[in-house]
Amino acid sequence: MSTQPTPTAARHCKVAIIGTGFSGLGMAIRLRQEGEDDFLIFEKDAGVGGTWRVNNYPGCACDVQSHVYSFSFEANPEWTRMFARQPEIRAYLEKCWEKYRLQEKTLLNTEIGKLAWDERQSLWHLHDAQGNHYTANAVVSGMGGLSTPAYPRLDGLENFQGKVFHSQQWDHDYDLKGKRVAVIGTGASAIQFVPEIQPLVAELDLYQRTPPWILPKPDRAISETERRRFRRFPLVQKLWRGGLYSLLEGRVLGFTFAPQVMKLVQRLAIRHIHKQIKDPELRRKVTPDYTIGCKRILMSHNYYPALAAANSTVITEGIRAVTANGIVDGNGREREVDAIIFGTGFAATEFLAPMRILGLDGRDLRQAWADGAEAYKGISVSGFPNLFILYGPNTNLGHNSIVYMLESQFPYVLGCLRQLQEQGLRYLDVKPEVQRRFNLEVQQGLRHTVWERGCDSWYKTAAGKNTNNWPGYTFVYRWRTRRPELADYDLAR
Asked: How far is 71 from 22, CA to CA, in rounded Å?
């Protein structure tokens, strides 16, 4: 493990990678496979894994099948479930980190708070929270889009005398047994941890603003026989992965090109509600009034039964205020609780936050993105040379594995880095008109998708701009990112 430099030292590398989730580790592995060893990985936490390390709430699991939610170049025949749970995904990423000897390249407990471009030297200056200083010819962000917890503004929350935490910062030392617990939010995290805590608590109050559409989760254990087959015949696992990818990719038809198809999916979701909930009033509360897919579709086999349990109450009247001992709902009724747990998701439209990034002429990235984040192919931002974003604006998916998108971005970034070296360039800076043209195309492509069917979601900014999703097939994105075109960039020699 590399040690942190002294506060006065400036450590230099060709490529600085920020984050150790799928994005950062995948980029580092691909660099090493290409023979490039002059890089450093910066990780703000005490271990690697990114979101799959810090999110460790009860029931935390992936909603994409394990064999496609993993690197194609690092197949894992040992997945124990169709949809892997958090400990197994974390262990997989840690194994990748160790296998490719990335420990010596990783600075743990090192949070980069500021990036500043030095035009004279053609270098990025990186500053961490401890005051240490580093330089790099290029920076690759692997921070991900779901890393900064989102909290609602609630009057009086500071006065609450009980326990308060977000699902991403789960307090495993706090014993929920016999407690009166309020859960605020009904996103992907909440539908996973609510069924886990409901049998433990005395009372569960679930504050729901908008109900999610939920489908049954086709999860199951993967037998030892199946795992043995994958170990003996890697081609079988490769074909299995390809089949899963094709199955998932077919869903893009309903999301982007023919949203009317989603009506069939909606019928399945309604049937799921009626099968698991008998109380008509509770059915009414949990049935959304928007087209399925407009918000993220969730999967669960045990969420609705947890809500139907005798100790659970679904509250849809909103929150007026928080008191010292509980929550006052929209009708003015105070409900006393011992703990408040936020399942309110992440600030998904605040890409690269809270890091401050200053580009050419001191241009602030926050100001450049005042109307919503955008990047060329989700990777390059005009005015911020040699900065490459993985899982950047409009590269999120509603139908397939984000790992496929990342593995499309790795070669593109590698191609840019290769051009810098082979052409003797100081930097690449995507042309503003190229970025503008690309993002106009993306936004036009989003206009007729299911995500524009009359709902708010974490895909969109407060002004209603979808800065997250890719409006089409993933293989089209891969084709468009197969290599960088130098004509798209301003070059400095």
From this structure: 8
Q: Contact 467/349 with Cβ under 8 angstroms?
A: yes
Q: Which CATH number fits domain 157-212+250-342: 3.40.50.920, 3.65.10.20, 3.40.50.1820, 3.50.50.60?
A: 3.50.50.60
Alpha carbon distance 79, 191 (integer Å): 23
Cα–Cα distances in angstroms (integers) from residue 115 to residues 124, 309, 355, 356, in the given order: 6, 50, 8, 6
Residue 1 has what pLDDT?
47
CATH 3.50.50.60 for domain 10-48+102-148+347-492: yes
Domains of the chain by residue range: 10-48+102-148+347-492, 157-212+250-342
For tokens 């949809």, the residue is: 83
* Cα 283-289-291 angle, rounded to 5 deg: 120
Read off the pLDDT of residues 161-187 as tens digits, 9 standing for 90 and up.
999 999 999 999 999 999 999 999 999
**Count of Cβ atoms closer than 10 Å to residue 115 Cβ:** 24
Secondary structure of residue 448 in the 3-state scheme: coil
For residue 45, give the nearest of 153, 125, 101, 129 by alpha carbon: 129
3-state secondary structure of 96: helix
As separate numbers, helices (DSSP H) first and strands (DSSP E) second, the chain gives 14, 20
According to the model, what pLDDT value does residue 283 have? 98
Helix (H, G, I), strand (E, B), or coil: what is residue 104? Answer: helix
In angstroms, the CA 290 to CA 63 distance is 22
Coil, strand or helix at 211? coil
**d(C-alpha 301, C-alpha 322), whole Å:** 32
Task: Estimate the crossing angle of helix 86-99 against helix 22-33, to 10 degrees.
Answer: 20
Model pTM above 0.85: yes
What does the block give as tokens for 311? Answer: 């100790």
Alpha-carbon gap, residue 141 to 144, rounded angstroms: 8
- The pLDDT, as a whole number, for residue 7 is 43
Helix (H) or strand (E) holding 357: strand 356-358
pLDDT at 3: 46
Do β-strands 180-184 and 163-166 pair in parallel, antiparallel, or remain unpaired?
Answer: unpaired
Q: How far apart are CA 23 and CA 66, in angstroms?
A: 17
| 10-48+102-148+347-492 against 157-212+250-342: fold identical | yes
Which residues in the chain come in under a pLDDT of 50? 1-8
Q: Are the C-beta atoms of 239 and 186 separated by less than 8 Å?
A: no
Residues 444-486: pLDDT tens digits? 999 989 998 878 888 999 899 999 999 999 999 999 999 999 9
Bond preceding residue 7 cis, omega within 30 of 0: no
